Amino acid sequence: MYKRELDEKLKKKTPMHAVFLYGADAFLIGYYGNKIAQNLLESGCEKHSFYFSEFDFSSALGYFSQGSLFGGAALVWVKIDKKIPKKQLDALLEALLKAQGGFLILEFYQAENKSDAEYMSDAKSMLVSFPKSLEKEGVFSVRFFRANANESVGILREFAQTLNLQIPDFLLQKILEQQNFDLGLSVAELRKYSIFGQEINAQIIESVGYGLGRISLESILDLLFDKRLFDKRGFKENESLKIEQFLEQGFEEMELVREMQKYFFTLFLFTSHIRSCNNNLEEVLHYKPPKDVLEKRGRLAGRIGYAQYEEIFNFLNTWHEDVMCGRNKGNGLLEVLIKIQAILK
Asked: From the CB of residue 253, how many other CB atoms can be counted at a distance below 10 Å?
């Protein structure tokens, strides 16, 4: 299931004996893992935590097999960035269900040395142990995507209330924009403002706030469709900082080529589906993302013609060859962005 379904289950206090949390937003994985854990701890569970390399299968299994020393149900709370073998996961779930009183929270994060594809491959192999057939037993899996603006503001509002921080929603939105919609950094900003002991206003945000969030390549490419990156004078003033931040993050140019090819090929598949009167756009991605993600990809794809795709792919292939042969002088990304925006006009 996805975030919205999880919110509904938490609201209805649906029993959850085991939950596997994974996806594209590390903050949401930890946020919901903590929310579920706090609900269980308030009911008297005995917590046993394992953090990354500390995870020990035998110990975790023992907590379910032996039960709690203090009479309460055992909560095994695991945060990992390495795949747990299926045989071990199956054994944990079998012992948990047999005990009829234990709980498992499994937070799976992307390791720094893993690509997005490798991470999702590992997640899918673990997902096999959490089939929908076990939902009736209280066993669930949740995949997270990046929260949209409204969801993010709602989460920040919750943290602001916890911190007894008086701040209007439009300034919560401002903090998100400063941090490039990184919820983790935005929450850290709220904690910083809590020391002021007064209502937070725009002047405080402007004078103290500092953006640290990472810029994604996808967010840069999305701007090309609105002609928001460049005009006749060069970078548009409002977007120049975003470009500068992205370049300062550092990148492997060959990886950028592959990611840009993937981005436009996905849009090409969307365009083909739309023009063949096939509105089942989920078939393109081979999974069901949130509705707003599908709608956005569909809108962008509908604005590109086949001739434009051909020109874009030819240009990206030329860039790929230049990088392979060492002909690029380090400014290839900027040249490609300018060229693609011109093609999309």
From this structure: 15
